Amino acid sequence: xxxxxxxxxxxxxxxDAAERGDLNCKVETDDPVLSQEExxxxxxxxxxxxxxxxxxxxNVCARALTDTATRWLNRDTRIEGLENIKEIHxxxxxxxxxxxxxxxxxxxxxxxxxxxxxxxIVSQETNLAMKGWIGFLMNHEDIIPLVNHSEYLRxxxxxxxxxxxxxxxxxxxxxxxxxxxxxxxxxxxxxxxxYYAAVNHVPVISCFVEIRDLQDKENEEFHKTRYVxxxxxxxxxxxxxxARENSREMMRQDYRQKVAAYEQAYGETLTYDFRTEDIxxxxxxxDRERVSV
Length: 293
What we know:
This protein is of the alpha/beta class. The chain contains 9 helices and 7 strands. The longest helix is centred in the C-terminal third of the chain and has 24 residues, at about 245-265.
């Protein structure tokens, strides 16, 4: 299932970014663009309602919708490596490659099978401005909004993360930051996810989603796809190291594992030279024209 319209401009943005080595930049063309005033207004509104009865009621509804959608969307998803985390029963940071608005459902399905009742997702505050049913889920599902402001991080974001981890929940943080649509390759991570694992003394559940093309078409641009969720070896902070040292080492280890998972899944060495095959299921314009002739 694809979300959004024509992706040729997005793919062109990915190609340009890969060629200049900017692998964590924004490439989507339809994301909400907010002024600083609008950002502050939307996060204040979220914080005001976060602990109200109305929010809790909508949260229950949103979680029920998400759970139903997760089961349906991942009816053909294969999960490998659950045995790697069978000893983890408490809070954990989860990392995965980010290539779709719906890829978190594969993570959620895996965490449900691992025994976690809830998966919280760190999401940029601009996503709270989305409309329709996606906007409803973004505002009422188990979302932890991320605002790049030191006071917000200290007063709200850090305590939210700490609360969920102490409660024994899984918290998904995308270390690649921006979504690259249907991009198969793991991208170099940023340090934030591993910092929160280190300071809260919890493991990182390292995941990589392999995307397999199917013969049937989703639309004229894309074939349908299915996922293979690989749960890799968990990464633990070293009690002999401080948070900065741990976060850097955990980040490097997670990236090594994701690269190895990619190379094993696709049978090739990872490079960031851009190819058509890097975009799962994509039918380039020249192939579409050839078929239509």
